[in-house]
Specification:
The protein is an alpha/beta fold and 310 residues long. It has two domains: 217 residues, Rossmann fold; 68 residues, Alpha-Beta Plaits. It has eleven helices and 15 strands. The strands form three sheets. It has a six-stranded mixed sheet with strand order 7-8-9-4-10-11, with helices on both faces. β10 and β11 form a beta hairpin. α3 crosses α4 and α5 packs parallel to α6. The mean pLDDT is 87. Its main location: membrane. This is ATP-binding cassette domain-containing protein. It holds the Pfam family ABC_tran. One of its GO terms (molecular function) is ATP binding.
């Protein structure tokens, strides 16, 4: 339904998006994962025709939209990373304003306002000024504004950043409903892998402006099918030990978090014995050892060499 073909954007000597090809089939939910600076937001600006590419193409149902972006804009809803609302207007007034920009009026406008307010759970607070809302409530109105014109494709750029757990869960359930029950096509970017795992059918992983892997969650996890993840919890932080363990032969990836060390190692190796021996040499107390099947986050770490929030 919506696809990009070798989409590229250069800013002087910096290539922010480098030959990115993404496709969204009608009715599916696609995740776009990447750390800060990976090029996700620039890619979304290009896909939504807010920015012109240096090269490449964006196509809707097989037809380029670069020369005639209005065709895509009529069916596209965009929820930007930053709140795009007028704080001194109420939720109702904001939605009325955006609805009229989309060409809605009269009964149809009022019906859409009522529908989207119910959808995001704010019908009973529609007359309050947006500046008095919590960050989570503002995010919900942000989504409601993008839904006013009944878009067929919804692009969401980090929609849950900095909000409370209740609003986050409400947003995720709303997006899931739109996709599963109403068949809306969704492109979803996030710093939170668990959100993408919950919402998305397929995932693209971006790093340094490029798509470095894509597929279903199962296909991506199969990248580490011959590896396993070992999570070792210590009684305290042992920087020298952690550095030494991460350099052992056979360790494919090592990351530390507070008192824990996460290692990706080949299946069937005898590395655990060596790990315990090294810990004993440093007089380090191990609290817990957990051997896990690799997760999507482990795949991301293996491909990029860093965690998603780095």
């Amino acid at each position: 339904m919506l696809e990009t073909d070798k989409l590229t954007k250069k800013f002087k000597d910096v290539v922010a998006v480098n030959h990115v090809s993404i496709e969204l089939k009608e009715g599916e939910s696609v995740g776009l994962l990447g750390p800060n600076g990976a090029g996700k937001s620039t890619a979304i600006s290009l896909i939504s025709t807010l920015m012109k590419p240096s090269s490449g193409d964006v196509r809707l149902n097989g037809k380029s939209v670069l020369k005639n972006p209005d065709e895509l804009r009529r069916v596209l809803g965009v929820v930007p990373q930053k709140i795009a609302l007028y704080e001194d207007l109420s939720a109702y007034e904001n939605l009325k304003f955006f609805g009229r920009l989309y060409g809605l009026s009269g009964k149809k406008l009022e019906e859409r306002i009522s529908y989207v307010l119910e959808l995001v759970g704010l019908a009973d607070r529609k007359n309050e000024l947006v500046k008095n809302y919590s960050g989570g409530m503002q995010r919900r109105v942000n989504l409601a504004a993008a839904m006013m014109h009944e878009p067929k494709v919804l692009i969401m750029d980090e929609p849950t950043v900095g909000i409370d757990p209740q609003s986050r869960n409400h947003l995720l359930e709303t997006i899931r409903k739109l996709n599963h029950e109403e068949g809306m096509t969704v492109l979803y970017t996030s710093h939170y892998i668990e959100e993408v795992e919950k919402l998305c059918d397929r995932v693209y992983i971006m790093d340094h402006g490029k798509v470095i892997a894509n597929g279903t969650k199962e296909e991506l996890k199969a990248i580490l099918s011959e590896q396993e993840t070992v999570l070792i919890e210590f009684d305290q932080n042992y920087p020298q030990l952690f550095e030494k363990l991460g350099q052992l032969d056979g360790i494919q990836q090592a990351t530390t978090e507070e008192h824990s060390l996460k290692l990706i190692i080949p299946k069937g190796t005898r590395l655990l014995g060596t790990l315990f021996h090294e810990a004993e040499r440093y007089d380090a107390q191990i609290i817990n050892v957990n051997v896990q099947t690799p997760t999507l986050e482990d795949v991301f770490l293996r491909l990029t060499g860093r965690t998603l929030r780095d």
